[in-house]
Pseudaminic acid cytidylyltransferase
Amino acid sequence: MRLAVIPARGGSKRIPRKNIKSFCGKPMIAWSIEAALASGCFDRVVVSTDDPEIAEVAKSAGAETPFVRPADLSDDHAGTLPVIAHAIRWFQDAGEEPKEVCCIYATAPFVQPQDLVAGLETLLTAGADYAFSATAYPFPIQRAFRLTGTGGAEMANPEQFSTRSQDLEEFFHDAGQFYWGTLQAWLEERPVFSPMSRPIILPRDRVEDIDTPEDWRRAEWLFQALRAQ
């Protein structure tokens, strides 16, 4: 069985009810559910939540909510790895054995079915623990600076001040959309970012981290612009 697990707890604080807040005409979580279903990758698409309202919205969008996430995995400190491991063990206890499991974030409206397919193919062909979405930093991180105690600025890597941008190594970051993993990797809670993982590189204009109201507004503008194309 191939399983999609969409974690969606009810306690978002910076953007209240973020998982089910309307984003470009649909509850935010609906975009992730629809992409999972459209990909054709999964035998089951489930939402792991502690919140009855989120569960109802998820079911209306086509997902299953066969269990209630326990309280100890629903606070601000609950990590993704134990949440996915809990979902896997629930299915094992019910007599079903997931093989490949994909965590899809509920706040990832830019996730595309074809990227989920690419992630699965990469996981299988590379023999990796995980295949996850990533993208390049838009500006060389070697040119980053920090604020000093007096309000000034100092470079994090001053030795790179005179290096041309095109000569600096390109760096990447987690796109926060999906994480394909093997059963063993999830249950053993192996680290996602390791030599045993493979990134699926996405274009920067399809990646947006949505943590603040400002992020939300920018994401809606970008989402609408992409749809207009």
